[in-house]
Amino acid sequence: QVQLVESGGGLVQPGGSLKLSCAASGFTFQYYGMTWLRQTPGKDGEWVATINNAGRPTSYADAVKGRFTISKDKSKNALFLEMSVLTPDDPDVYYCAQGCSTTATGRPRGQGTQVTVSA
To answer: What is the DSSP string of the chain?
Structure first.
Protein backbone atom coordinates (compact mmCIF):
# COMPACT_ATOMS: atom_id res chain seq x y z
CA GLN A 1 0.00 0.00 0.00
CA VAL A 2 1.49 3.29 -1.11
CA GLN A 3 1.79 5.82 1.67
CA LEU A 4 3.06 9.39 1.45
CA VAL A 5 3.32 11.51 4.58
CA GLU A 6 4.34 15.15 4.48
CA SER A 7 5.86 17.14 7.31
CA GLY A 8 7.73 20.36 7.92
CA GLY A 9 5.02 22.92 7.34
CA GLY A 10 4.36 25.77 9.70
CA LEU A 11 4.29 29.50 10.19
CA VAL A 12 7.08 31.57 8.70
CA GLN A 13 7.64 35.27 8.22
CA PRO A 14 7.76 36.78 4.73
CA GLY A 15 11.21 36.22 3.29
CA GLY A 16 11.75 33.19 5.48
CA SER A 17 12.48 29.57 4.64
CA LEU A 18 11.03 26.14 5.28
CA LYS A 19 11.99 22.63 4.33
CA LEU A 20 9.20 20.17 3.67
CA SER A 21 9.62 16.41 3.73
CA CYS A 22 7.61 13.58 2.26
CA ALA A 23 8.16 10.10 3.66
CA ALA A 24 7.34 7.42 1.11
CA SER A 25 6.55 3.75 1.69
CA GLY A 26 4.79 0.87 -0.01
CA PHE A 27 6.58 1.16 -3.35
CA THR A 28 10.09 1.12 -4.76
CA PHE A 29 10.85 4.79 -4.30
CA GLN A 30 14.02 4.83 -6.40
CA TYR A 31 12.05 3.85 -9.51
CA TYR A 32 9.64 6.77 -9.38
CA GLY A 33 9.75 10.43 -10.10
CA MET A 34 7.95 12.56 -7.56
CA THR A 35 6.05 15.81 -7.56
CA TRP A 36 5.15 18.55 -5.11
CA LEU A 37 1.87 20.38 -5.53
CA ARG A 38 0.01 22.90 -3.42
CA GLN A 39 -3.63 23.65 -2.94
CA THR A 40 -5.76 26.36 -1.44
CA PRO A 41 -9.07 25.06 -0.09
CA GLY A 42 -11.75 25.45 -2.72
CA LYS A 43 -9.29 25.71 -5.59
CA ASP A 44 -7.61 23.23 -7.89
CA GLY A 45 -4.19 21.97 -6.98
CA GLU A 46 -1.21 23.84 -8.42
CA TRP A 47 1.90 22.08 -9.62
CA VAL A 48 5.06 23.25 -7.82
CA ALA A 49 7.99 21.02 -8.80
CA THR A 50 8.92 17.62 -10.17
CA ILE A 51 12.00 15.44 -9.89
CA ASN A 52 12.57 12.35 -11.98
CA ASN A 53 13.47 8.95 -10.58
CA ALA A 54 17.22 9.51 -10.92
CA GLY A 55 17.11 12.87 -9.17
CA ARG A 56 17.63 14.87 -12.34
CA PRO A 57 16.26 16.63 -14.20
CA THR A 58 14.04 18.75 -12.04
CA SER A 59 11.43 21.24 -13.14
CA TYR A 60 9.64 24.08 -11.40
CA ALA A 61 6.60 26.24 -11.81
CA ASP A 62 7.49 29.80 -12.79
CA ALA A 63 6.04 31.08 -9.51
CA VAL A 64 8.66 29.23 -7.45
CA LYS A 65 11.62 28.94 -9.81
CA GLY A 66 14.80 30.17 -8.19
CA ARG A 67 13.27 30.05 -4.69
CA PHE A 68 12.32 26.40 -4.22
CA THR A 69 14.48 23.30 -4.60
CA ILE A 70 13.15 19.77 -4.93
CA SER A 71 15.34 16.82 -4.02
CA LYS A 72 15.08 13.20 -3.02
CA ASP A 73 17.08 10.84 -0.85
CA LYS A 74 16.70 7.28 -2.11
CA SER A 75 18.40 5.83 0.96
CA LYS A 76 15.70 7.35 3.17
CA ASN A 77 12.76 7.00 0.78
CA ALA A 78 12.23 10.71 1.22
CA LEU A 79 11.33 13.65 -0.96
CA PHE A 80 12.12 17.22 0.04
CA LEU A 81 11.14 20.74 -0.91
CA GLU A 82 13.36 23.52 0.31
CA MET A 83 11.52 26.80 0.12
CA SER A 84 13.12 30.20 0.52
CA VAL A 85 12.10 33.83 0.16
CA LEU A 86 8.54 32.86 1.02
CA THR A 87 5.88 35.41 0.19
CA PRO A 88 2.21 35.87 1.08
CA ASP A 89 1.41 34.17 -2.27
CA ASP A 90 2.98 30.92 -1.12
CA PRO A 91 0.71 29.80 1.74
CA ASP A 92 -1.11 26.62 0.90
CA VAL A 93 -1.37 23.00 1.77
CA TYR A 94 1.65 21.38 0.16
CA TYR A 95 1.48 17.73 -0.75
CA CYS A 96 3.60 15.21 -2.56
CA ALA A 97 2.44 12.82 -5.24
CA GLN A 98 3.93 9.80 -6.90
CA GLY A 99 5.05 10.30 -10.46
CA CYS A 100 5.98 13.21 -12.68
CA SER A 101 2.62 14.50 -13.83
CA THR A 102 1.70 18.10 -13.07
CA THR A 103 -1.52 16.95 -11.47
CA ALA A 104 -2.21 14.41 -8.76
CA THR A 105 -5.35 13.08 -10.42
CA GLY A 106 -5.43 9.31 -10.18
CA ARG A 107 -2.07 9.09 -8.43
CA PRO A 108 -1.12 8.34 -4.85
CA ARG A 109 -0.67 11.51 -2.84
CA GLY A 110 -0.24 12.55 0.75
CA GLN A 111 -2.59 14.53 2.96
CA GLY A 112 -0.42 17.58 2.89
CA THR A 113 1.27 19.97 5.28
CA GLN A 114 0.15 23.56 5.86
CA VAL A 115 2.46 26.45 5.08
CA THR A 116 1.50 29.87 6.44
CA VAL A 117 3.41 33.06 5.68
CA SER A 118 2.68 35.92 8.03
CA ALA A 119 4.48 38.65 9.90
So the answer is: --EEEEE--EEE-TT--EEEEEEEESS-GGG--EEEEEE-TTS--EEEEEE-TTS--EEE-TTTTTTEEEEEEGGGTEEEEEE-S--TT--EEEEEEESS-SS-TTS-B---EEEEE--
By C-alpha distance, which of 81, 84, 9, 11 is closest to 51? Answer: 81
β-strand partners of 58: 51
Q: Which residues pair with 68 in a beta bridge?
A: 83
d(CA 33, CA 22): 13
The predicted pLDDT at position 79 comes to 97
Do residues 48 and 39 lie in contact, with contact meaning Cβ atoms separated by under 8 Å?
no
Q: What is the pLDDT of residue 99?
A: 94
State pLDDT tens for residues 46-91.
999 999 998 888 999 999 999 999 999 999 999 999 999 999 888 8
For strands 18-25 and 10-12, give the pairing: unpaired
The pLDDT assigned to 70 comes to 97
